[in-house]
Amino acid sequence: MSLTATGQRILLSDVNLSYGNHPVLRGLSLHVDAGEIYALLGGNGAGKSTTMSALLGFARPDSGTVLVAGHDPAAAPDKAREQIAYVPENVALYEHLTARENAAYLLALAGRQPTGDAIDGAFEATGLQNAAWDKRLGGFSKGMRQKVAIAIALLREVPVLLLDEPSSGLDPRATADFNRLVHDVARKGAAVLMVTHDLLSAADIADRIGFLESGRIVDEASAQGEERFDVRELHRKFAREVVAA
Amino acid sequence: MTLIAHELRLLLRSRMAALALLLVALLSCAAVVAGMAEIDRQRDVIARIQPKQAQDIASIAQWVDKEKDAGSAAYYSFHATWDTPAPLAFAALGLRDVAPYILRVRALGLEAQLYDGEAFNPELALPGRFDFAFVLVYLTPLFVIALFHDLVSGEREAARLRMLDALAGSGRHLWARRVGLRGGLLFLALALPLSIGAILSHVPVGQLLAVLGLVALYLAFWIGVTLLIGRMRWSSVANAATLAGLWLVLTLVLPTIAHVAINRVIPVGQGVEISLAQREAVNRAWDIPREDTMRAFYANHPEWKDSPPLTAAFHYKWYLAFHQVGDESVAKKVADYRNAIESRDAAAHAIGWLLPSVGVQSLLTRLADTDMQAQLAYQDRIRAFHKRLRNFYYGYLFTDKPFGKADFDKAPKFEG
To answer: Most buried in the list A25, A114, B192, B229, measured by CB within 10 Å?
Structure first.
């Protein structure tokens, strides 16, 4: 599937998922379209990580539909994962490889063989300083690691980008850089789903925000045209829902 | 760049993995070199014994020629026997470092000569000399543990596992590739020095392939154990500690217990007991009428009964006869001892089916011809040679045929 194709890239419909006797997702429904950035906001235990696991095929729903670019991750995890670039909360790459080597290796694992120029281009796009490209990752900050991970995601040219708590631990400058990058990826047609508990970061970047509570979306807000969210209103809403939960 | 090349770079960039592989290669090289040096030394000693033997015989011949007495020739001349090492012996020295590989025998009682140097039951279950078998059986599992214990748990602890699993095309192929690469490199680190040593030692190709197959199987066993423990999803430290414990139990504790159990179940007297019993029988001959000894001798060797009767003077045929009667008096002890040793050997081999460390060592020493079977075969060759030697001297002694200098050349020669 190309990045410019339109339509739903991520679909969760009435998904129920339990770990043993403990239900985590209870009728979760959401969709993310091509070119859209969706932030799934929720407190601890709301089901954010489980939603990610269901999309990556690590957890099998008890009922409901999960589709990633048309593929069911539980039935065909490899097919679904081919469509996903996943950036975990703590980007842990290989410390004894350089940024370039990490990118080449992880892309090779995903079945891609980008040229050196392509890797350089992706690093440039992420704003990773030239001097860091051939340095081992041992001394990289979290922001630099995330840039490498995003560069890898860019090079994979997949229609779905999953971000797990992407801005946690980033300084404001790095957060701004990161948001710009994610926007770039979305502009190219990827559907971006980020899970976070950081309202400001979600409001900064997302086109839509879903409030996840006890395994289901209890409210959803959209950015209106050029205007971003009314953070005060979102906070009031989010705080109310968290208190209610 | 292929995935294997990426994996290789990743592996070799890990200081611990690179060091482990380097150490295996160095230990393997050192073991092969040490084994070859030891075997070269033994070959050299064997080669030197033959000219010395000729010198020794020449000096005795000089003296014997004056009296022309076959008895003196038989009594004073030692004849060398030797156990030439097989080409593969450098890889598994086995019993060659504890049992004699050279024995000089006289035509007198054999048993006392054989058991002057004791050959104990195969110490198959215990660590032996530093050779390739030692590196493979005892040290290699530790390197397998070092390289494999954190294969998956290390990725989990570094928080990379989820990311790796999320990459399409990873999964089983990734782990299979990593296992294959680590296993392959370990195999190469062991196999290359061994193969070079084998080529230099002129080991037949089939035998080398058999040993390499054994190396691969032993590696596969330990890799399998390591992967099995890895499936428990414990931490790397817990994996390493469990595997180290298993190594201790499988390579040291259980083989030692098995060894003790075999020794308890199959008691074997000391060879020196046979030697003493034979000497007692021989010494007793001085105190009994000589005719009694000759009667006992002729009963078992009627081919010499037409020999002229003994006179009052000392005659070597009586001396050699009572030595032979002494040997024959301990024949049952000898057979029992041999049977017990063979039973212990068979039991140790049987345990090898349960304990890979014992099994591999046992197979290696069998292939290298350095095990108890090889020792017993050498003993059989000595017995056969000694029999020929006795018959040779008896031919002179029991017919009172003079024995001159030239007759030494007609004496049987031991074929290594």
So the answer is: A25
Counting Cα atoms < 13 Å in the Cβ hemisphere of B163 gives: 26
Greater confidence (A185 vs A64) lies with A64
| Domain A7-83+165-245, classified CATH 3.40.50.300, yes or no | yes
* Residue position matching structure tokens 């140097």: B117
Over residues B84-134, the pLDDT tens digits come to 999 999 999 998 888 889 999 998 988 888 876 554 444 444 545 789 999
Residue A226 has pLDDT above 90, yes or no: no
- Separation CA A228–CA A223 (nearest Å): 5
CA B309 to chain centre: 47
In this complex, do B162 and A58 lie within 8 Å of one another by their Cβ atoms?
Answer: yes
pLDDT grade for A5, boundaries at 50, 70 and 90: very low
In chain B, where are the structural domains located?
3-28+131-242, 30-128+267-410
User: pTM value?
Assistant: 0.86
Which of B13, B160, B163 has the most A C-beta neighbours within 10 Å, making it the best mutation to test the interface with A? B163
Q: Do A88 and B163 touch (CB under 8 A)?
A: yes
Query: In degrees rounded to 5, what are phi and psi of residue A163?
Result: -120, 125
Cβ contact, residue pair A93, B171, below 8 Å: no
User: Do the chains contact at A104 and B1, CB–CB below 8 Å?
Assistant: yes
In chain B, residues with a C-beta closer than 8 Å to the C-beta of A78 are 168-169, 171
List the single residue in A with minimal CA-CA distance to B171: A78
- A101 at B interface, C-beta within 8 A: yes
Shortest Cα distance from A97 to chain B (angstroms)?
Answer: 7
Q: With contact defined as beta carbons under 8 Å apart, do B368 and B194 qualify?
A: no
The residue ranges of every structural domain in chain A are 7-83+165-245, 86-157
CA-based end-to-end distance of chain A: 39
Least CB–CB distance from B169: residue in A78, A88, A113: A78
Q: What is the pLDDT of residues B288-342, one digit of tens each?
A: 888 888 999 999 999 998 888 888 888 999 999 989 989 898 889 889 999 999 9
Whether the per-residue pLDDT at B248 is higher than 50: the answer is yes
The interface pTM score, or ipTM, of the predicted complex is: 0.81
Report residue B275's pLDDT band, with 50, 70 and 90 as the boundaries.
confident
A111 interfacial to chain B (CB closer than 8 Å): yes
SS3 content of chain B, % helix, strand, coil (to 5): 75, 0, 25
Contact residues, chain B, for A105 at CB < 8 Å: 6, 9-10
- Whether the Cβ atoms of residue A201 and residue A237 lie closer than 8 Å to each other: no
d(CA B404, CA B228): 74
| Nearest residue in chain B measured CA to CA from A152 | B167
Quote the pLDDT of residue A150.
Answer: 85
Question: Residue A1 above 50 pLDDT?
Answer: no
Smallest CA–CA distance, residue B148 to chain A, in Å, is 17
